[in-house]
From TrEMBL:
Residue ranges of domain Ketoreductase in the record: 7-199
The keyword Oxidoreductase is assigned to this record: yes
Protein source organism: Rhizobium gallicum bv. gallicum R602sp
Family designation: Belongs to the short-chain dehydrogenases/reductases (SDR) family.
Gene3D superfamilies for the chain: NAD(P)-binding Rossmann-like Domain
Name of protein: Short-chain dehydrogenase protein
Stored SUPFAM superfamilies: NAD(P)-binding Rossmann-fold domains
Amino acid sequence: MNKTNLGVALVTGASTGIGYVTAAALHNAGFRVYGTSRRLAAHRSDGVSMLTCDVTDDASVVKLVDDVLEEAGRIDLLVNNAGMGLLGGAEESSMNQAKSLFDVNVFGVFRVTNAVLPAMRRQGKGRIVNLSSVQGFIPAPYFALYSSTKHAIEGYSESLDHELRAFGIRVSLVEPAYTRTSFEDNLARPDQLLDIYDSARAGMNVVVQKAMEKGDAPEVVAKAILAAATDPAPKRRYAAGKMARQVSFLRRFVPAFAFDKSLRKQLGLPV
């Protein structure tokens, strides 16, 4: 039983993985939680109300927010979790594929955030937590387009936080490393494969599979999201898990040439 009422939370991409676990964690902490999925999701018995929403569709996003506000009257927390991955050489994706990736991972965040902000401004308070990645601040060979979307979310979130503080709204980033979810199984593949990248792409697939096996449980990320959602003085960034904390530290304090060499070695690339 919840011991407190922390308000109304909206979590996108809550049908599986990090979003699913996060929605449950927020509910257990005292939030009234609404989760979204692109298609009608099965009923959840953990107190999370599921709604359908396609974050790439303006009308779908507006309807989602209207429905939550009509039923709950307010939105105190938005967790922008919905996203997709893409593994392959940067030049192996068509412009249409790249645009589709950005439409989900970047413009989807813009759409949902913009739809929620008027209600938060009226309330005079709110919290927005955007899911980034360690690939939002380090180089990510063969994840160049995915990494680009997370770099974009990093810059957007930092800037937005400064814009919204006057309205009592704060924005934070949560940066996981490898997490044991179905992310790897659901990675999109390039739509214009080039033979010259076959060997490196296959090698990177192996690296990702092994890393996922040793990755953090999604509960680790959910814990970081809950901290970002409830900290009285929210931080700009929350590293989710030991590896994410280590990578964040090394990126800031290790000389660039040494970081570059170590990254290539760990990824099996010629040093």
